[in-house]
Amino acid sequence: MRAQLARVPEWLEYFASLARVHEGRVTPFKGPVVNTLTRLPLGVVALITPYNHPLLIAMKKIGAALAAGNVVIVKASELAPLSVLRLGALFQEAGLPDGVLQIVSGYGYETGKYLCESPLLAKIDLTGGLATYKAIAPSASANLIPITAELGGKAPVCFFPSMDVEHAVKAALFASFIASGQTCVTGSRLLVHADIYDNFTALLKKRVEALRLGDPFDDQTQIGTVISKTAVERCSAFVERAVQEGGTILCGGNPTTNQAGKGFYFQPTIIETRPQTDLECNEVFGPVIALIKCQSEEDIIHVANGSSLALGASVWTNDFKQAHRVADKIEAGIVWINGHHLNDPSSPWGGFKQSGLGKENGLEAYESYTKLKSTVINYGVPPVWFDDEPANARYG
User: Fold this and answer.
1) Which of 61, 85, 213, 330 has its CB surrounded by the most CB atoms within 10 Å?
2) Residues of the chain with pLDDT > 90: what percent?
3) Do 268 and 159 sit in the same domain of this protein?
4) Phi, psi torsion values for 146, nearest 5 degrees
5) Which of 132, 152, 150 is nearest to 283 (CA)?
6) At 74, which CATH number?
């Protein structure tokens, strides 16, 4: 939460600035005609936000929607609504008119469903799972309501021999275990070149086993809780299936508790597996990570592109040409080179394939909350169809 709070103002500042400088256009048009393009607010928009990074993800959407002039309804996750509810009160204190930003609570299958079925909406912006998208898409389609959807990922983290092994392991820990693996770009697939695989794996195992699991409010904690008992059970099920498919647990693999014997915890887990297994292809949304040995650059690219989810990916190499070559070939909406989880208000965020539709952040997000109006002004062409002489008029 501290990390979120430190960055939340950036999205407000960016979109406020964008609203100030964003301009319409005058497009080329044949003859003495001026064609102006202006962007107008959509109207009432619904934002469906998740439990992970609840405040930051809500702000990414709210900032763009308000800056574009819309009325905004936020349906916060029933698992983590409090920070978003507090945000509403702060907007009110800051002087936002009543009703411009409305925040509602409730279960997705009740409140969220009811909200998204309204024909009065002009747009739905969802961060959630594919199942949620499929639940709301039919009614949105029937009402001709556009949807921006960020639906999760299975981010490959690609390590090449030019990368120092110790640095690579630190990168893997950061990519894989931030927020206990509960981010849509969690580095949940570690694709490691064979030339460094053995050294990488030995050091990774040692470092993961040394991670401090505990209370998220404790500054010494490195791995906190998962969101619920259901999340623990989901992690356990992935581990069980991975072993059934021939995977080897290198570390972790079990539910656990903190020192007080409380909380929903799952051990940070690394499982050595192969491509196209359940663990390698599907999103866990927890600290259960697939480790795969790859024989070549081409092999890494092939495995990276083998999932139906394509939100984020990272490439770790000190070879500049290789970095761009691999990044160009990886199918993902975001590819980081020698970085992971990097996010900025100006940088479009969204995936390919089943990871979603549209973008958060940047000019793309701002314009997605507007509708484009074309005004065509004729200032010199006589309208021949008004000719009083029938012989001079043409209608087709």
Assistant:
1) 61
2) 90
3) yes
4) -70, 150
5) 152
6) 3.40.605.10
